[in-house]
Hints:
Elements: H1 2-12, H2 48-52, H3 60-63, E1 67-69, E2 72-77, E3 80-86, E4 91-92, E5 97-101, E6 105-113, E7 122-123, E8 127-132, E9 143-146, E10 152-163, E11 175-179, E12 182-195, E13 202-203, E14 213-226, E15 237-241, E16 248-257, H4 259-263, H5 273-280, E17 285-290, H6 297-310, E18 315-319, H7 320-323, H8 335-354, E19 358-362, H9 368-375, E20 383-389, H10 392-398, H11 403-408, E21 430-433, H12 439-452
Parallel strand pairs: 17-19, 17-20, 18-19, 20-21
Antiparallel strand pairs: 1-9, 2-3, 3-8, 4-7, 5-6, 5-9, 6-8, 10-14, 10-16, 11-12, 11-15, 12-13, 12-14, 15-16
Helix pairs in contact: 6-12, 8-9
Amino acid sequence: FEQIAADFEAFAGGLDFDEVIPIPVSALRGDNILSASASMHWYHGPTLMACLETVDVVSQRDTAAFRMPVQWVNRPDATFRGYAGTVASGTIRPGDEVMVLPSGRTTSVARIVTYDGDLEEAAAGQAVTLALADALDVSRGDMLVESESPAQVSDQIAAHLIWMGEEPMLPGRNYVLKAGTQRANASVSLLKYKVSVDTLEHQAGKTLEMNEVGYCNVAIARPLIFDPYRENRETGSFILVDRLTNETVGAGMIDFGLRRATNIHWQALEIDKSARAEQKGQKPCVLWFTGLSGSGKSTIASLLEKRLHARGQHTYVLDGDNVRHGLNKDLGFTDADRVENIRRVAETAKLFTDAGLIVMVSFISPFRSERRMARELFDSDEFLEIFVDTPLEVCEQRDPKGLYKKARAGEIKNFTGIDSDYEPPENAEIRLDAGSRAPDELVDELIETLEKKKLI
Length: 456
């Protein structure tokens, strides 16, 4: 028993328990459950029930600072405006000063309103409506907090993540993060390490499979209001949801906000995208060519650029092979690397459109999720997805680089269309039948479409 207890205490040393109390019990005979066992004369500690009766059961959320995520703005008429939600932690009374996050504005509580009448105090777990002394801009997803002990706000966090999805977690892939009433797009920007559930040791890894635990940096599309999980479980936890299936694929516990997120600010510049576009006399946009290897993406994009250049348009082609010689030379062809490949290219294309250019992106980009991520970086009229629809058998017949032959022979792994999936677009703006039509004819069609959309 002593050896088992010592082993467990050693294992639990990294779990930050306040105390570990080993108790030998027999559920079958009831030994050391209610009364001391007559069969364990060598044990002189408490019984299980005696131990449980001494455990401090004061809830963390009762003693933590006041937090109330705003669920709904309650405005039945012009005479009343209140903010409804469930108190996540702490207590609140009329007259208490509160801060609205993320704005940072402060005010005081005028009333605590419920269906049964006003309250003198509201505590953790109670659903109430708070009327504030001042008229402030507060909406769903904001949080009312104790002004002397505010929550943190950051768009980058470090967190432990438990993965529950059947598909692996891929750094760079966009998911929906939900924390209380907050909702935002988010991605794992870095998997620092995986945690072995058997030994708690740190292990290297690029992805998380189902039931694996990792320590990650998470980037969020908008500032997140939170407390570290160790301080407040209610405001320190979140879930990740798959954007296509709406399945909950991960659960996270926030450790801290990354300092670089608060040290870096967007620098406003005097010359913006519209000024650069006006100088060039064109409307900047992204033409995103997607399709199998050998479908004709690069050929069509190159011909299109040549035609646009002859018309005096300012263009640039981001080609999959070319980019892998420089910007993405460190990436392979695993699913995780493909996601990062597209993320980098999408951000690069965004910079080029900001410069006022017409950008042609020619990448296999096999996953719908990443193409959607790329689309969401741009205004709705700036992004055109062009599906170069060429059957696999035609691509294999062409095989200009001999890649399909190598993939069929097992010399190339993770080759799209052979042993790695390609997810065709469901609602592409333009579909090109490149299996039976000549590239020049397809470029004529593209030019006509761009003219109709007044992009050129």
